[in-house]
Amino acid sequence: MVDSLVANCSNRDGNGGVAAKGGGIKMYQNAYVSGCTFTNNATKRGGGAVVFGGTLENCTFYANRSTDGSYGGGGIHMEGGTVRNVLVRGNSSAGTGGGVGLQGSGAVLDCATVADNTSKSGGGLDVHMTAGTIRNAIVADALTPYDAENPPLVKTGGTVAYSCSPSLAAGVDGNIAGVPAFKAANNGDYRPRNASPTIDGGLDQEWMVGAADLAGTRRVTGARVDMGCYERAFTSTLIKLR
Predict the structure, then answer these.
(1) In this structure, is residue 235 part of a structural domain?
(2) Residue 72 CA: distances (Å) to CA of 8, 28, 128
(3) Residue 77 has pLDDT above 90, yes or no
């Protein structure tokens, strides 16, 4: 995709074509994708999507696969572009980065929840990163215990800031070390519980003005943006006086 717009779609069972890149979609400069679900796509690199440029937001990636052990990014493979407000869960890689692989210095992953993915080589169950930027993200597994030999995030280059993962050092670049409190990850609900340290833990960005999260909630509802693809939604109680 170049200079294209795709919105509110469902993409499944793709194989990336002859190039074997991006089982669901392949994006280049000025492409824009929003509101889509990518499921059960498979190819050598980037089972759900390969992003070289453009913007992909408000999308869900589930049960996609990268099938070549030399590559990675079971859900998304990034060499450029911006991916934000995405949930990447239950994807797998025969190589590294079961959820997302970042290899380009211009790649930006913002306000993402990447959880409970798998990689065969052990190079980042959820994210394998050699370059690029991760910001306001959650990279952690709720359904399996933390394993230092097979961590959710492996970083050999690039920058991770204002994010939450047991693979990160607490207090460095605004990061939180640990596993956030999800509402019901076993049922696919990765919204933060009220006690989650990821609430108000992010760093506000210009694009958030007037924007919504993956569930349609206003992007910043508290003092600062929440980490991950979901913002805490406040509920009101009506009290009747007689």
Answers:
(1) no
(2) 26, 19, 8
(3) yes
pLDDT single digits (tens) 80-137: 999 999 999 999 999 999 999 999 999 999 999 999 999 987 668 899 999 999 999 9
Are the C-beta atoms of 136 and 203 separated by less than 8 Å?
yes
Q: Which amino acid is at 152?
A: P
Of the candidates 33, 98, 103, 25, which has an alpha carbon nearest to the alpha carbon of residue 65? 98
DSSP count for the chain of H helices, then E strands: 0, 22
Supply 167's token pair: 């693979």
Residue 101 lies in a domain: yes
Give yes or no for a contact between 207 and 174, defined as CB atoms under 8 angstroms apart. no
In terms of phi and psi (left: phi > 0; alpha: psi -120 to 50; beta: otherwise), the region of 68 is: beta
Tokens of 235: 């509920």
Count the residues in the chain: 242
pLDDT category at 20 given cuts 50, 70, 90 is: very low
Rounded Cα distance between 163 and 175, Å, is 5
* CA-based nearest residue to 120, from 92, 144, 139: 92
Q: Residue 195 burial (CB < 10 Å; 0-12/13-18/19+)?
A: exposed
Quote the domain boundaries for residue 62.
5-208
SS3 assignment for 131-166: CCEEECCEECCCCCCCCCCCCCEEECCCEEECCECC
Question: Can you tell me the distance from the alpha carbon of 122 to that of 26, in angstroms, rounded to the nearest whole number?
Answer: 25
Within-domain flag for 239: no
Convert the pLDDT of each residue in 202-220 to its tens digit. 999 999 999 999 999 999 9
* Contact (CB, 8 A) for 49 and 24: yes
